[in-house]
UniProtKB/TrEMBL annotation:
Class of enzymatic activity (EC top level): transferase
Organism per entry: Solanum tuberosum
Keyword Methyltransferase among record annotations: no
Classification via PANTHER family: GALACTINOL--SUCROSE GALACTOSYLTRANSFERASE, PTHR31268
Name this protein carries in UniProt: galactinol--sucrose galactosyltransferase
Keyword Transport attributed: no
């Protein structure tokens, strides 16, 4: 039993009396989150590993919205009804659960109405392990737990997926994040953060203008165009070029292979060749000098 409205009974997970999962394995546990109706999923294995995939059981057919990581740095939404439609690397899963009830109206026959509530599942960090959700062809809902290091192994996780329910999906998400904030103590909800002053400023991010071809000359020309247009930015985000990377699958001079750009790995926090040996009309030798130059020349903060 995890909370008054949630329990595992005869191998089924019930939320507010509605069956959410069937065939819940014996190695899956639920534990309540203190001072709330939410709970955590956990699971055990007899074999230590740096990566486990645990089944939570067969997810019943509900409308869902999920957010999943389709690239290393991007999440996008997906909607569906079956667990097999839930992609790997799912970071959030919101289920719409409808239950039918009968209401009597005077002397007339009972009227059938739908009561809707929502169930939120959020994979979270536990120690050195990260978690994600995914669906299987058998419509099982699975947790993937991994450390990313073959030497960091475990047989047990107890708090890798947070689960909560409520009638309002917006309030449910907000309240759930605040519950996790209090329980984990590793982050703050936006309500408890100080809003940085630069959010009221107009700024420019170089990514959409240059993508990976960002360069000092292009940034300088872009800032000058803003100045000429009468809307000078107060802050600038140089997106790309500030880190040293290496790609084992794409050697210099070799034909480009689609997808190999995603294999670049970070080797140092310093500017790469895009911001070294700058042109003569920019009196700078590295990214630090270039940053100081554009601050002084264009009034950036």
């Amino acid at each position: 039993m995890a909370a008054a409205s949630t329990c595992i009974q005869d191998g089924s997970l019930l939320v507010n009396g509605k069956t959410l999962l069937t065939g819940v394995p014996f190695n899956v546990q639920v534990s309540p989150v203190e001072s709330s109706a939410a709970f955590f999923f956990g699971a055990t294995s007899s074999i230590p590993s740096s990566r486990h995939v645990f089944s939570l059981g067969v997810l019943q057919e509900f409308q869902f919205l999920c957010l999943f990581r389709h690239k290393i740095w991007w999440m996008i939404p997906r909607v569906g009804k079956l667990a097999c439609e839930i992609p790997m690397e799912t970071q959030m899963l919101l289920l719409e659960v409808k239950e039918k009830s009968a209401l009597c109206h005077g002397d007339s026959l009972p009227l059938s109405t739908d009561r809707t509530f929502y169930v939120l599942l959020l994979p979270v960090l536990e120690g050195s392990f990260r978690a994600t959700l995914q669906g299987a062809r058998s419509n099982e809902l699975q947790i993937c737990v991994e450390s990313g290091d073959a030497n960091v192994q475990t047989t047990n996780v107890s708090e890798v997926v947070f689960m909560n329910s409520g009638d309002n999906p917006f309030k449910l998400i907000k309240d759930s994040i605040k519950i996790l904030e209090n329980h984990m103590g590793t982050f703050k909800h936006i309500d408890n953060k100080k809003v940085p002053g630069h959010l009221d400023w107009f700024g420019w991010c170089t990514w959409d203008a240059f993508y990976m071809d960002v360069n000092p000359q292009g940034i300088k020309e872009g800032l000058e165009r803003f100045m000429e247009g009468g809307c000078p930015p107060r802050f600038l985000i140089i997106d790309d070029g500030w880190q040293e990377t290496y790609n084992d699958f794409q050697k210099e001079g070799e034909p480009f292979v689609e997808g190999s750009q995603f294999a670049s790995r970070l080797t140092d926090i310093k500017e790469n060749g895009k911001f070294r040996a700058l042109k003569q009309d920019i009196p700078c030798y590295d990214l630090q000098e270039f940053t100081n130059f554009i601050k002084e020349s264009y009034g950036l903060k």
